[in-house]
Amino acid sequence: MIRYNLSCDNGHGFEGWFSSSDDFDRQSKGHLVTCPTCGSASVGKQLMAPTVSTARKKDARQALVMDQAQKETITKLRDMVKTIRANAEDVGERFPEEARKIHYGEAEQRGLIGKATADEASALIEEGIEIAPLPVLPDDTN
């Protein structure tokens, strides 16, 4: 995984994790990388110092220490994701196909969640189908 320091055209800084540089490029081109503060899809990489791996660093674990405002934000995001999941049909790998059916009037309008590759997501966006990734929150991966 590659961690990039990113910023939007409104000057908000944040970080993003990607499987490769190409993965960032594909997601950025498909407007899938958006600012968590303002939602802008005009996002770019910022200058970063290289990470040097040492034996001491390998023993350390990454941790996030949150202040109260960050904890409240994570709780709100978690509640939002829970509400979305409770009110949407999980179609798994069929997400691109089902999203197209709804968009083109071949299936009833309903909320969907599922999986799509970066290329599939880009294609959906290019067709004018509104999609958004669900955030992965700290407790979801720990």
TrEMBL record:
InterPro entries referenced in this protein's UniProt entry, alphabetically: DUF1178 (IPR009562)
Protein name: DUF1178 family protein
Species this chain originates from: Sinorhizobium fredii (strain NBRC 101917 / NGR234)
